[in-house]
Design brief:
alpha/beta; Molybdenum Cofactor Biosythetic Enzyme, Chain A; Alpha-Beta Plaits; 2 domains; six-stranded mixed β-sheet; four-stranded antiparallel β-sheet; 9 helices; elongated
């Protein structure tokens, strides 16, 4: 019997993302971390630092997907309102967590830095939430129900995933193969690729062109399936489709290559 995969959504929070001032890489990090666990990311949203919009997005996503990962808005400044929004979304109170407060106080003392009211904001955790360890900078994330709240700084968010991983229900691993055709055009393979998609409904097929300049262009064909035994067959069929156009198919490990 094929194991059904749990699913995930990523909610990116921050005005700086919407303004273009900050480029997000957290979605890529989270999706890449979850993929080997058999947890595909099915949706992502970006919302501003507006409490009602965060609350609406969290409540919408957490009933639709097995897990939700939020990033951003749990720092010490006035616009770090994610913790309050999560508490509101779950209908719980929020206050300083005794263990987190003690941990941060000790950390700042060791650094010779004042544990100011602003820094104490990072110890505020929704009631009932579980702490998510932050081995990079100390201030933790937290888990409320099926929602994991991570920092926005990519190195911190990535480190927090290591504490989250053991908590997750794993699913069926998705197996992929990527075949590249240099100089190939999507119009050359659209019809046979569509026919193959109908022939093999248990395989997801994608066509991704690239163009970096004259002589450096082509198409990646990517096949994904939870049935590993189908990979050799689909590989042969994709290579045949590309070869039929007069282009030499190439197997690649990285679809961005």
């Amino acid at each position: 019997m094929i194991k059904k995969s749990p699913t995930a959504a990523v909610l990116l929070i921050g005005d700086e993302l919407l303004s273009g001032r900050t480029r997000d890489i957290n979605l890529q990090q989270i999706a890449s971390y979850l993929a080997p666990l058999g947890i595909p990311v099915r949706e992502t949203r970006i919302v501003p630092d507006v409490e009602d919009e965060i609350v609406e997005a969290v409540n919408s996503l957490r009933v639709k997907y097995t897990y939700v990962f939020t990033t951003g808005g749990i720092g010490p400044t006035h616009d770090d309102i994610t913790a309050d929004a999560i508490a509101k979304a779950f209908g719980v109170e929020i206050s300083e967590h005794p263990e987190v407060t003690a941990m941060l106080a000790k950390r700042y003392e060791e650094m010779g830095t004042d544990y100011t009211p602003a820094r104490r904001r990072m110890a505020r955790i929704p009631h009932g939430a579980q702490i998510v360890a932050n081995p990079v900078s100390g201030a933790p994330g937290f888990q409320t129900g099926n929602v994991f709240t991570l920092a926005g700084v990519p190195s911190v968010a990535r480190a927090m995933l290591e504490d989250i991983g053991p908590r997750l229900e794993t699913g069926a691993v998705i197996h992929k193969i990527t075949i590249r055709g240099r100089g190939l055009r999507e119009g050359d393979i659209a019809e046979p690729l569509g026919a193959l998609a109908k022939e093999m409904p248990d395989v997801a097929l994608g066509s991704y062109p690239w163009f970096r300049g004259i002589g450096d262009n082509g198409v990646h064909l990517v096949a994904s399936t939870i049935q590993e035994n189908l990979i050799p067959l689909i590989t042969d069929k994709l290579e045949a489709i590309i070869s039929a156009t007069g282009v030499q198919p190439e197997r690649v490990e990285d679809a961005n290559a």
